[in-house]
Amino acid sequence: MAPPKTKLPTDSESNWDVAFTDIGWISDDGITESNSADSSEIKGWQGGQTVRKVISSSEMTFSFTAIETSKTVLELYHKGSKVVTMNGKSVLAVKAPGPDRRTFGFDVIDGDSHIRIVIPDGEVTETGDIIYKGDEAISYELTITAYPGPDGTVAFKYSNDPAWSAAPAA
Asked: Is 80 exceeded by the pLDDT of residue 58?
């Protein structure tokens, strides 16, 4: 993740800009991408049949569970709060959440295929419970909502997989 308006990668292979900070390990549940859309039906007077559907709202989210307790994860989970370290001791003053938009990215490796997902404008909009238990890692469930840019783009996906550019079978 990085501050808003950070220089974005334009492929799946180049290095991330130095402004990006690694979130760290995520659980073996991986990343869940969700797309939802609400629509309204327009019905014709003659017979009441649906003649068109209009999308009234849509949303793209990415959910994952971070399993590292780091400055980065704590500040993402507790939106608007900052970890401060003085004389080798750190404190997180947890504040009421406020707006905290950032740039996010994920590298997904599937065999030899590398998919890079870039979210130019996103925000943690949901968090799960933190459970402190002796026989489990502390984990932080995070859901990022991807917001549309001026042209409506909410995310970019890049891949080195040749199947992405292969011509469709005749």
From this structure: no
Judging by beta carbons within 10 Å of its beta carbon (0-12, 13-18, 19+), is residue 133 exposed, middle or buried? exposed
CA distance 60 to 56: 14
Q: Which of 31, 3, 36 lies closest to 106 in space, CA to CA? A: 31
Pairing of the two strands 50-66 and 32-43? antiparallel
Interval 15-52: pLDDT, tens: 999 999 999 999 999 999 998 877 788 888 887 888 88
- Residues comprising the chain, all counted: 170
103 close to 124: Cβ distance less than 8 angstroms: no
* The three-state (H, E, C) secondary structure of the chain, written as one string: CECCCCCCCCCCCCCCCCCCCCCCCECCCCCEEEEEEEEEEEECCCCCCEEEEEEEEEEEEEEEEECCCCHHHHHHHCCCCCEEEECCEEEECCCCCCCCCEEEEEEEEECCEEEEEEEEEEEEEEECCCCCCCCCCCCEEEEEEECCCCCCCCCEEEECCHHHCCCCCC
Pairwise CA distance, residues 58 & 90, whole Å:
40
